[in-house]
Amino acid sequence: MPQLIASVKGVEVKHVYLHKDRTTLGRKPGNDIVLDTMVVSGQHCAFDLVGVADVYLVDLGSTNGTYVNDRMVKERTRLNDGDVIAIGPYRIKYLQASEAPSTFGGTMAFTPEAPLLQGVFTIESGTSAGLEVPVVKAVTTFGKPGVSVVSVAQRRGGYFVTHLGGSTPPVLNGLALGNDPVLLTDQDVLDLAGTRMRFQLRE
């Protein structure tokens, strides 16, 4: 099944499987894919599914344009596996097929792309010391807005941490995080403005 993986600064924010004849994307809530930022038009573009796996991108007269591999789309365009669609700050990767399907009771079920091990943060300092926070969503944010905020994204390769904002840079294993996502490994220690968190991978 064709799919779209949307990210901002390398952090995955949405993962959508294209199963409808037309999937719309825009800022307004009525769209199938909602990207809530002013650079995205109310109804920005659409993805038309033709047959089993052919997907065509159509710009719906957006203000800021829709780009495929850095080229503006001016007419209905067939997407190829691995194409990258740019809409404002979003980068949306198109994959023609998902992972190999699994069979349950004779029906086909597609397995979402997720790490096999469960990521868990244990808070080691402050009033919440001892609290365990499992990373269960595709993207989870931690920290205090304006001070130090990170996001942790689940991908096929594992869990990736990215500095999102705040005046105090987060520190991973004693080194300040930059703007690029960093793969977390078991027993990594993350410091968010004095709050110490230990990352663990569990079965």
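Next protein, fold it too.
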Amino acid sequence: MILTVTLNTALDITYRVRSLRPHTSHRVSDVIERPGGKGVNVARVLAALGHEVTATGFAGGATGQVLRDHLAATAGVTDAFVRVAGATRRTIAVVDELSGDTTQLNEPGPQISPTEWGVFLDRYEELLAPASAVALSGSLPPGVPVGAYAGLVRAARAAGVPVLLDTSGEPLRRGVAARPDIIKPNTEELAELTGSHEPLRATQDARRRGAHAVVASLGPEGLLAATPEGRWRAAPPAHIHGNPTGAGDSAVAGLLSGLVERLPWPERLARAVALSAATVRAPAAGEFDRAAYEELRGRVAVTCEVSAA
């Protein structure tokens, strides 16, 4: 079983409009509603790949119940969320059909009480026992300690469970010091962590700060990985147009599934890039275009940067 943690879950709502223009009214041509938050997206993609997944974190209020209802209809995902008093947030993606661009609006998460945090920690410890790997993904809602991910990384390591961390800012800085197996920042998050805007140098610096392996998202250009076995770049065969929401989460699912299946790094990266690109082509966050994934997987270019990291 793969465990995903989403402390700041969301109900993802995607609107499609003919052309998005400021200061005007718009007629929405299509509305798609899905359970979301980074770890939830990871869980859904992992389940679609055939893995058994348990999703935990926080869910509350009417929005949280809608999220859980949607998740209950997702084959392969077990709901282990902690119910909280505050309402789960919503994220709104507005897709401009004319340009293909997406505008994202993210609400803040609910206030988490010390008691609710304690209940989650107990559940997390229980869920680690049967887990083959764990993904810690996304932002922290109000009330959760800024060092939360560092503690969750240490607990996973103590249980002998490989852990992937995908967050940003101070939670990432503290989490890296706890020595996660993999981190997956984008170039902006990596620069904030290390102070370097040169990705090759920054990935190596992030490893020195504690991450066992660093996989940096280069946006449309793919991924750059620095690992104990070497460094690689993985790039899609062409620029992919569409909605990028959730593409990074699909990459995490590719990396995590490759880890538990013991695939070599180049195969993990090719899978992650193909899933990410196929998600850009999908109509809603947390989904991927299966046909595009199968077609792209064999066309991802993976090149070795350095023989040893």
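About the second fold: The radius of gyration is 18 Å.
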